[in-house]
Amino acid sequence: MLRCPVIAPPRAGPVVLMLAGITLSLSACNSDAPTNQESSAAVATSASSWRAVQLGTLGGKGGEASAMNLAGQIVGYSERTDGSFHATLWENGAVRDLGTLGGRTSRATSINNLGQIVGFSETADGSEHAFIWESGVMHDLGTLGGRTSRALSINRSGVVVGFSQIANANERAFRWVNGKMIGMGTLGGRQSAALGINAAGQIVGRSEMPDGSYRAFIWKNGAMTALGTLGGRYTQANKINLSGQIVGYGETSEGHTHAILWYDGEVKDLGTLSGDRNSYGLDINTRGQIAGYSEKSSISGSETRAFRWAYGLLRNLGYLSPKPNRALGINDRYNLVGSSAGDAPGRTTPTMWTQW
What we know:
With 356 residues, the chain is mainly β. The chain has strands at residues 22-23, 28-29, 43-44, 50-54, 59-68, 74-80, 85-91, 94-97, 102-111, 117-123, 128-134, 137-142, 149-154, 160-165, 171-177, 180-183, 192-197, 203-208, 214-220, 223-226, 231-240, 246-252, 257-263, 266-269, 278-284, 290-295, 305-310, 313-316, 325-330, 336-341, 348-355.
């Protein structure tokens, strides 16, 4: 199964991606009431007015949804009957295989409101390349000189961001504009990755510092600037909306990982669901609502629970679908997408959470 590029630690960096700083007192909705769940069916409780829907696969038993646009098109990856995983588009009740760049596996990571899709795929020679999919065709975006590249976000103008290996195998953030992949540099270290871009062309991600630590950054007007921390050595910014609100996560001074909101110079610790140690903020919509997940420890993946943060409240959506579950994307209609436990051991199923 392909790993999620948004939350994976940098290859030459710390074991966990983190932030630390201002801790706010936040209430968390943490009901875990049973809901008579059935896989591949909608689940709801009258108290929550939310439902969880497992989206289906390309014939196999696993997968994950990564992003959803305003039109309700969802992208991610899912398993085929031959056991391979392919980039997938869910639209109008249908599950569409987006294919590969000649290899066995692929994954879609982002979709804009025009239906342009980006991600990464194995190629015929076994390397891994970023792609853009449009009008039914998957196009190879190439690399910055190395074997690997991944496209992780696309804005409404069709500008793509991600990371690519350079000739010495270090990874560098890139922008893909008008058919050309452009390296973005670092904050003084060897490696960087661009993870999100908004409609204004502002870009966020992570970069290695000269001391080997990793910091979240914002890139605008040609300059990369480090964002604040929660007291630890690691921060990562995953997405940015048009208002300039940035979501990510980072290490606290106690060594935990907490979801973070950066805005107007503030570093806001979003806390965790009750009883958990770690949380991860992965996407933000234009209204400032955040999708992510919370976990009891970095070892116990089975304890992950999806959440939505809105209006100062961290709400647990994990009780609506089988655990483990996690939310990776959110659109402007309050829908979240991600994954929840599937029927097969070790497999997760693409999932959408919607309000009634």
